[in-house]
Design goal:
The structure holds 2 protein chains of 2 kinds. By secondary structure, chain A is mainly α. Helices cover 74% and strands 2% of the residues of chain A. Chain A has 2 domains: 1-46, no CATH class; 56-261, MetI-like fold (Orthogonal Bundle), CATH 1.10.3720.10. Chain A contains 14 helices and 2 strands. Chain B has 8 helices and 20 strands. Residues 362-368 of chain B have low confidence and may be disordered. Classes of the chains: A mainly alpha, B alpha+beta.
């Protein structure tokens, strides 16, 4: 029985990990080897592809740019979504339910819809090709989701805890930071994960709203198609390096992601 | 410290939660709020604490209007029915938190937390986190946090409801002792008449958002102001029999009658409602003038060492509270005995006309 179970797991792992393995495999090969022969592992192992990326500023700046606006996006998302989610979870106001639902409708449109207005607006106010421009554009999608996730986590904290804290003499900011945030820490972890991931993999807006200064790595990767054809090895190395931040984030929030998909309503 | 509520009204979405509440609490007094669920006990406490706003009326502490004062600025403590602690802090920090916020010196905090924890017998758990404790210990932690600071008003909102029977009895006794040592106003809400009687102190009866009666619990048990008040002190509910009083006779719809005597003597003739507490009826006559009624058993509910015997005939339904375990089958014919000297007399609106106790003690307040 356990053997049969193992077979399934192995088959699944191979199926999922094969493309990733192939990417890593390619990143340690030269272009000639990639195009010339079929081999399961590099015959002439080389770091040259990585060397290109780490020494050429036009490559490694792409990573810095991406990380810069992704982190910026996550921070803005949290700063905006935490108070908003608290309000939705604790207070009643006119139209609160409609507003809460309306938040999600923002996510129903594909990012491409907002491409033209963002481009035109940012160009005219001088935000074009800045990191904050991309971060703000991504917030349009990450904030609603963050509010939804955080509201669920906050609503699972009894209101009486807030009240007890006020009775004990906590001021609102102190209560929020000392008591409330630790109670929803896993919700915050999940929120950061979702906004980080969305922003990290989103290409369309990021590419359109930048040209040189804030160009993301995913946009730079398309540059390898040059006059001499595709630089397969460097492209593969860039791909490997692009996966790493995602893996790191998943590693840190792995225990909370399942809860996050239930939006805290567990 | 004195606390006065003046004409307090509160309604939410056109539903009235508190209607014209006028109450005053003496410094150092122990007060019980007795009322059924949704009677307004919690609403009243939340208004006193400043957690909810009033629609009209004033809350005065020491003669000063605190109606619009924020929760943080009122010197109160509150314990909820649910076990509310800060899950991310250990028991010590939980208890210490009001003191830390008040800027108390470190050594003083340590001493007072130790003292309070000892009083509530939770000092072995100071290093643990609230969710690692049993329900009783969690509630003790919440109480310790409420008691550790010198609050002028202590609010206990049915704190023992979610605990098991044994623990409840034990903690209730301890609480009573703890309150005696303090000089603050303690207000304790409960749905159980037994608890109100056991705790003593001044009891305020709440019914559908307004105050029925204020005074010592035992007084209210004997001299309820109306049917609702009498009912609040009966568990199971008080029995009501419609009847009439004439010159010579008291008649229950022509199936039973007895001569006018005792406390019915100077009552004007007319139609009345007679109330009898379930514990006052019995299966054996205790006096010669007890009224004998023939009924059939509907169901015998056995609760601990008591039996609630539901009986009926074609005129009425009654509940008897009997001590001991009695096993009766449905439809068994029995004779029950009803002592006329224990009958409450209510008019058709439910107001009290006559209570079955001779002399009414002086000093008990009444509210319309």
């Amino acid at each position: 029985m356990s053997r049969r179970k193992n077979v399934g797991i192995w088959a699944y792992s191979v199926f999922v990990l094969l493309p990733v393995y192939w990417l890593i495999n390619m990143s340690f090969k030269s272009n000639e080897e990639i195009l010339g022969t079929f081999s399961m592992w590099p015959q002439q192992f080389t770091w040259a592809n990585y060397q290109v990326i780490f020494t050429d500023p036009s490559w490694y700046n792409g990573y810095f740019n991406s990380i810069y606006y992704v982190v910026l996006n996550s921070i803005i998302t949290l700063l905006v979504a935490l108070p908003a989610a608290y309000a939705f979870s604790r207070y009643k106001f006119v139209g609160d339910k409609h507003l809460f639902f309306w938040l999600l409708t923002n996510r129903m449109a594909p990012p491409a819809v907002f491409l033209l207005p963002f481009f035109q607006l940012y160009s005219s106010v001088g935000l074009f090709d800045t990191h904050i421009a991309v971060a703000l554009a991504h917030c349009l999608f990450s904030v609603p989701l963050a509010v939804w996730i955080l509201e669920g986590f906050m609503s699972s904290v009894p209101r009486e805890i807030d009240e007890t804290a006020f009775i004990d003499g906590y001021s609102f900011p102190r209560f929020f930071i000392r008591i409330f945030l630790p109670l929803i820490s896993s919700g915050i972890g999940v929120t950061v994960f979702f906004s980080f991931m969305f922003s990290w993999v989103e290409l369309l807006l990021a590419r359109t709203l930048t040209s040189v200064e804030a160009k993301p790595i995913a946009a730079i990767m398309t540059r390898t198609i040059g006059a001499s054809g595709v630089d397969w090895g460097v492209l593969a190395a860039a791909g490997v390096l692009t996966i790493i931040p995602g893996i790191l984030v998943i590693y840190f929030v792995r225990n909370h992601v399942a809860k996050g998909f239930a939006l805290g309503r567990v | 410290m004195s606390l006065v509520l003046e004409n307090v009204n509160r309604s939410v979405d056109n539903t009235s939660h508190l209607k014209d509440i006028n109450l005053s609490f003496e410094p150092g007094s122990f007060n019980v709020l007795l009322g059924r669920t949704l009677a307004g006990k919690t609403s009243l406490m939340r208004v006193i604490a400043g957690l909810d706003k009033v629609n009209s009326g004033r809350v005065l502490v020491d003669g000063q209007d605190v109606t619009s004062l924020s929760v943080q600025k009122r010197n109160i403590s509150m314990v909820y029915q649910q076990f509310i602690n800060y899950p991310n802090m250990n028991v010590y920090d939980n208890i210490a938190s009001p003191l830390i916020l008040a800027g108390t010196a470190k050594a003083e905090i340590k001493r007072r937390v130790q003292e309070t924890a000892e009083m509530l017998r939770i000092e072995p758990f100071l290093k643990r986190y609230p969710l690692e404790l049993s329900g009783g210990q969690q509630q003790r932690t919440a109480m310790a946090r409420a008691l550790v600071k010198d609050a002028s008003i202590l609010l206990f909102d049915e704190p023992l409801v979610n605990l098991d029977y044994k623990l409840r009895e034990e903690l209730r006794q301890e609480l009573r002792e703890l309150f005696k040592l303090r000089n603050s106003i303690a207000i304790y809400a409960t749905t159980e008449p037994n608890e109100a009687l056991a705790l003593g102190g001044t009891t305020t009866l709440l019914h559908q958002g307004h105050v029925l009666q204020t005074g010592p619990a035992i007084e209210q048990y004997r001299y309820p102001i109306n049917l609702d008040a009498a009912d609040l002190y009966s568990e199971p509910p008080i029995n009501i029999l419609p009847g009439t009083i004439s010159e010579q006779e008291v008649t229950f719809d022509e199936y039973a009658s007895f001569p006018v005597a005792g406390h019915f003597k100077d009552v004007p003739v007319g139609a009345y409602r007679f109330g009898i507490r379930p514990s006052h009826m019995s299966l054996v006559p205790k006096n010669d003038d007890d009224i004998e009624l023939s009924v059939q058993v509907e169901v015998a509910e056995i609760s601990a060492s008591e039996t609630f015997l539901h009986v009926a005939n074609k005129h009425f339904q009654l509940v008897l509270q009997l001590s001991g375990v009695h096993d009766y089958r449905t439809n068994t014919p029995v004779k029950i005995y009803l002592p006329p000297e224990k009958l409450f007399l209510f008019n058709s609106e439910g107001g009290i006309v006559k209570a079955p106790y001779p002399e009414r003690k002086k000093g008990a307040q009444q509210h319309g």
